[in-house]
Each structure stands twice: as structure tokens, then as C-alpha cells.
Predict the structure of DUF4405 domain-containing protein.
Amino acid sequence: MSTTKIHYISGITITIFIVLHLFNHICSLFGEDLHISVMESLRIFYRNIFIETIVISAVFIQIISGLTLFKKKRKGVISGFEKIHIWSGLYLALFLIIHLSAILSGRFILHLNTNFYFGTAGLNTFPFNIFFIPYYGLAIISFFGHIAGVHYKKMKRKILHLTPNQQSKIILFCGLSFTLLIILGLTNYFHGVRIPAEYNVLIGK
């Protein structure tokens, strides 16, 4: 099986998880309690040894195959969406390495519940939020940008009189909108979230 095919299959696996994860984050627009409640329900599905092993394995495969493809394809990139596809993939690979390391460290070293408060501690604490808001925001935009790039490459026909280029632009616009909504939810509309004391270790308190 080719590296491209392996990357595509692992990408579909991760996309399913990320869609659920982003849906969970959108719920924060209606309060942290709903976010935590939805996360606890979703964890019944994905936080078991079988599913979790598949997801983590897919992440590692995606990172390795993605970096390999990045080295091969970056010099031959021509169109705008091909560039977005390549560079968003690189950012996602770096983000996934850091994010997964943080989650596993939080669970098995710090023994924290890696829930809403674990993810939002940095987003709601100055000066850490100066880094974490763009860091998380760019990851979400990169996810949609990567999908837009794949769509542009594989879609060969118009839909509702929209060309593949226009369709991909809509996907990217949706990504920007989702990013703003999620950041609003995770920061309580920029009013800040009160972080429980056990998570102070994440922000140096």
C-alpha cells in the first residue's frame, strides 16, 4: 500500500474523532457544564482500550506519513489550495505531536482529568493566552484547510453551480467561523473561565 493511501485511511480515522471533538467544543458556547457532560458521554465511545489504540495509532501513522509526503510534494506545489493542503498538514502534524504529548502527560504523569479545564487553562490565563489562542485557533483552521485542499484535489465537478475551487473556499470559510465560535466558547466569550485549583500546575501557580 502506498504512503498516500495509508495517509488517506489514517486521515479518515482521525477526522471522525476530530469532528466529534470539535462538536464537543462547540457545546462550550452554552456553558462549561454542557461541554463536560457531552465529553463524558463521548468518552464512553472513544476512551476505551480498543478505540483509543486505533485513534492513537492513526495519529502516529498520520504524522509519519504526512511528514514523508510533505518532503516529497512541497517543491511541486502549484495551486493555492495545494499549498494550503501541504502547509496545513505540516502544522497539524506538529500540533498533534504536542497536543497528544500534553494529553498523555496530563493523564498519566500529572494524574489530571483532561477535560474542559485542562484544555482551557492556558486559553484563559494571561499571558499564556497570547500563545494558546492563536495556537488552538490555527490548528482548527488548519484542519479545515487540509480538508479544503483534499476536496479541491479530488472533486472534479460542480455542485450547485459551484466549482471545486469555490466549494473549497466555502469549507475554509466554515473553518474560520467554527474557529471563532470555539474560541468564544472556550473563553466564555472572552470573559474568562474560572479554572479549578488542581489545574494551576498547568499555568505555573
